[in-house]
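Record UPF0145 protein CFL01nite_09150, 109 aa.
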Amino acid sequence: MIFTTTNNVDGHEITQYIRVVAGETVTGINFLKDLGASLRNFTGGRSAGYEEEAVKAREAALNELWNRGQELGADAVVGISFDYSPMGQTNDMLMVTATGTAVKLRPIQ
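=>
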């Protein structure tokens, strides 16, 4: 299956728009990562712990999007976008949503 952030796929014609699909994941930030981020906030620099969690959450959301596209028999998901939202009373959870449109394709002759 082809994934793209664009609204078309080079060399292919979209023959059917199946529907909008989404993949969501929610991940927690543990105490040690939170402590490390607090130190980075004080000293400056990047928070590797938070970055790793964001990457894992994004990949999990993409995997969910892939599964949903497969279930619909899509050839591609186009127009993919991401949304990152803090959750929980202390914003200690991160929700990542990947959305796009599942489509059928035909190669352009």
